[in-house]
Design a protein that fits this description.
By secondary structure, the chain is of the alpha+beta class. It contains 12 helices and 16 strands. Strand 1 and strand 2 form a beta hairpin. The termini are far apart.
Amino acid sequence: MTLTHCVVHELLKEPGHASASVHYSQALLPLSPELNSLVAKLNRSFGGSRVINARFDDSPGKLFPQKFADYQEGGGSDEDFLEYSREVLGHLETVIQGKTGAKGGYLLLADYDDAEGSRHAVFLIRNTTGRIFRRTRTGFDIEPVTHLDTDQLAMACRVDVGRYRRAATTYLELTHRSETEVSAYFSDWIGAEETVSAKDMTQSLHDLLASVELPSDPETGEMISQVATFERAYEHVRASPSKVVDIDALSEELYGSPAVLAKAAKDQGIALEPQFRYDNAVLREMVMMRVQAEGIDVRFPRSALEDGLIYIEGEGATARIVIAVPELVGELLR
């Protein structure tokens, strides 16, 4: 990861109080390996299940999207970045006034490039023990950080700048720890609309693949099984370096046509974005199953059902699950 701009401002707000203020930095943070490491750690927060895909609300009165657009159209200098950061933080100060449940913290804004492209991110970091930043005359210094607790990072927003400039359907990612007043004001300040979680989108993809007509083998012309369909979809999606599902590309992989899955989703009323970041746990359910009852927890690949290694014998109340794997007997009797 390569940083190009980074600044920290402090939002002063105590829970239970209505008033808020901002302590502004007068200069950007000097680029350094320590700063690069800190932003890299913060950036990894976008890998969890609480990531929400969205885009800017461009309606009148949404200041953050307007200021971000102005910044992107400008020269991209240090002065431009600092001025932009101060303007949007001033708006946050207004947004948070009167929200007694909201807390303050450090606002770190950064421009950087990673393996997936250009990024712009905003991180709200709590004022907790084990200080990360030390206030100076012109701004803040970074304290040595060996571990960043997840409790310290309250909320974050990341813009995929390339997708933003191409006006893609979604290009924002938001992450937070809980659905509270705090996350609501953060989303309102960012100006995000049509937010949908990575978990929900991945579940919608799972539901679609479980109900859509099965694809055919391109070599034999025979219909492939649902298990094989899930496995092909899983491998294709996991191969994406950006961890983003492209529905048209997946449709092309499975059916030889980019339109099949999107049309099926529309026909079945399944809400599915053309592109979205996937949730690892839900995606894994395409190839792995888990059943739990009476304190027994069994996990196995879906292919075990198709191969006859696991099957249901009998019906109704007398039905039972049979695991036809002799090697497990030896493991159990050890």
